[in-house]
Every structure is written in structure tokens, then in C-alpha cells.
Design brief:
The protein contains eleven helices and twelve strands.
């Protein structure tokens, strides 16, 4: 299983055909449905590039094909994206012109509450394959203006490709940096890299508990960084960029939904630039995890709000079509009888 090309490899190919930065930008924006593929009389492509343009277009558009799965939830739609080698990832069109994209086929973190983790890491996505999901989404919803890297995979485990895609989103797509959100379980390498980037995305930390031992159990292959350190690095970055940190917490009845853990979270984020998004766990086949009662979730939200922290219950988009991360992909693979190898391709 071979990954698709990285954006930098595509740019090198265009440069070899005589393309300058303006030509490359025009080609990439055409791929993103932000401009025509045809030449302009006032600004023609170099001859070699013009001759190869049909092949280049076919190559870019051939990186993916999409099956749409409409949802009854307003403004939501699940996208099953098949890559050139037959591997499948998920994207989701979100309310308010948002898009959630995947960064890996599968995931190595192995979160006990996540369907994607059950398959392990199959392979990395190239930066162009990450962006192909954006192109597919823009073909359906041209006004897409916010992109969250919260789909299948752990972005920090594919950091070079993710940061290349993020740079493209903030420059070629002209997205506001705060409207690009990278979700992560947290790692010193990512915390060190983000402040040095030209495009500085907003950051979402998949925390899920304030108990270090419990976090190691729920996220068995995440970096063994203490919760206090994870929050400190996340919040420092948020305050430097002036985008609020999003603290993600999947609520599991009887596991991480006790008031003491949420009170400790309130202590750790008090006075800092953060908001907390609770997500009720999506049922996963073979797991005994269940959602807390709605009234209890509201009590937990109230604890944080009374302490001055913005807190919400975020509903997973397209839940009616198994919108939880990895669930619809698993159903498609089972239906098609596809065999998934765990051999990892870089």
C-alpha cells in the first residue's frame, strides 16, 4: 500500500515543467474549485506545463473519489473517501460550513472508545491525500471555510504531512488560521513545532480525563505526558496565538464522568484561554462503554460554567449514519468484504 504524493512532490513536478509560484497557485486553486483550469489570455502557462495540464488535472482528481452519505442532521453529510490504492477514510461536512478530515488510514493510539483505533494504523496519508478530502468537500459545498483535522488518525503521528496541508489551507486556500483546527492527544514534538509555523492553527487537545493512570488506560499508545503538562503546553500555545484551546472529553458512564475529575479540570484551566467540549461516547461494537444520562452531562457542564470556563456538549455530526470516527468506514469494509492489512506504509 503506497501513499499518494505529498504536496511538495507535486510542486516539484510543476516546477520541473517551468511553473512559477503564480502558476502553481492557479493549478492548486483550480484543484480546490476556486478557479478555472483553463489558461488566461493575459497570463499563459509555460508551454511544457500547458501540454501536461490535462494529465496533471487527472492525477490530482484521481487521488480520491467520494461516496456521500446524507444525514438527517442539519447541514451534515458523511463522505466515504476512497483513495487511489483502494484504502478508505472518512470526512464529514459539518454545520456552519465546516469540514472534518482524516490524517491517517486507521490510528496507532488505540483509544478504547474509538472505532478507528480497533484497526490499528494501516498507513499514513500524504499531504495531498489530506487536501484531496478538502477538494471533494468543496465540490459539494463550495462555501466550506473551516477545516478541523479531527477525523481518522492522530495528526502528530503524521506531522510533516499535516503541517504541509495546514500551510496550504492557510495560504493557498486563504483560510483564517483560527478556522483550521488540529486535534491531538498531545506530544512535545507538536507543541514545539506549531509556534514555528507560518500558519498557526487552533489546537484541540483530546484529554478525556484528568487522571493520568486512567488516561494511559483509555489512550494506551499516547505519549505518557502528565495531564498538567499537556494542559500547560496547550494553553500556552492558545494564549500565544489568541485562539482558545479546545479541550475534548469523551464522556463514558462510570469511567470518566465523575464530578471530581471535572472539578480538577476546572482548577487546571481556571483563568486560561480554553473551552471544554464534552462528547458523549459513540457505542462501539464489542465495547461495554455507554453514555451518561443527559441530566448528569448537564451537571458536569454546569460545574465548569460556574467556575468561569466555557463548556458545551458537542454532538458528533451525522450520528444517524454512524458518524462517529471510523464507524461508517468499518461498516463499508464489512459490507464489501475488504481485507485490511496492518502493514504500515510511510
Amino acid at each position: 500500500m503506497m501513499r499518494g504524493p505529498h504536496l511538495s512532490e507535486l510542486v516539484a513536478e510543476l516546477e520541473a515543467l517551468g511553473a512559477k509560484s503564480a502558476h502553481i497557485r492557479r493549478v492548486m486553486r483550480a484543484w480546490m474549485h476556486l478557479g478555472p483550469w483553463s489558461e488566461r489570455a493575459s497570463d499563459r502557462f509555460p508551454k511544457a506545463l500547458a501540454e501536461e495540464l490535462p494529465r496533471i488535472r487527472a492525477s490530482l482528481e484521481g487521488l480520491s473519489r467520494v461516496l456521500t452519505v446524507p444525514s438527517s442532521q442539519a447541514q451534515s453529510m458523511k463522505l466515504i473517501v476512497e483513495l487511489a490504492d483502494g484504502q478508505i477514510v472518512e470526512s464529514v461536512l459539518l454545520p456552519r460550513d465546516g469540514l472534518c478530515v482524516s490524517t491517517q488510514v486507521g490510528c496507532a493510539v488505540g483509544c478504547l472508545f474509538c472505532m478507528t483505533g480497533k484497526s490499528g494504523l494501516i498507513r499514513q496519508l500524504s499531504s495531498a491525500e489530506i487536501l484531496a478530502q478538502v477538494a471533494e468537500a468543496r465540490a459539494i459545498r463550495p462555501q466550506t471555510k473551516k477545516i478541523v483535522l479531527m477525523g481518522m488518525g492522530e495528526p502528530l503521528h503524521n506531522m510533516a504531512a499535516v503541517l504541509e496541508a495546514v500551510h496550504f489551507m492557510g495560504t493557498t486556500l486563504n483560510l483564517a488560521h483560527k478556522d483550521i483546527v488540529v486535534s491531538t492527544v498531545g506530544d512535545e514534538r507538536l507543541f514545539d513545532a506549531l509556534p514555528k509555523c507560518e500558519v498557526k492553527p487552533a489546537l484541540a487537545l483530546s484529554l478525556h480525563t484528568t487522571d493520568d493512570a486512567l488516561r494511559r488506560r483509555l489512550l494506551p499508545r499516547s505519549s505518557p505526558i502528565p495531564v498538567e503538562r499537556l494542559l500547560e503546553r496547550t494553553l500556552d500555545y492558545a494564549e500565544a496565538t489568541k485562539y482558545p484551546a479546545q479541550i475534548e472529553w469523551t464522556l463514558i458512564a462510570g469511567v470518566n464522568d465523575d464530578e471530581a475529575q471535572v472539578e480538577r479540570l476546572a482548577d487546571l484551566v481556571a483563568g486560561r484561554y480554553a473551552m471544554v467540549n464534552f462528547i458523549a461516547v459513540n457505542p462501539v461494537p464489542g465495547s461495554s462503554f455507554t453514555r451518561p444520562e443527559q441530566a448528569h452531562i448537564e451537571d458536569l457542564i454546569t460545574i465548569l460554567r460556574r467556575r468561569g470556563t466555557v463548556a458545551t456538549l458537542r454532538m458528533s455530526a451525522a450520528q444517524d449514519v454512524e458518524g462517529g470516527c471510523g464507524q461508517l468506514r468499518a461498516r463499508v469494509l464489512k459490507k464489501s468484504g475488504m481485507h485490511v492489512s496492518k502493514e504500515v506504509s510511510e
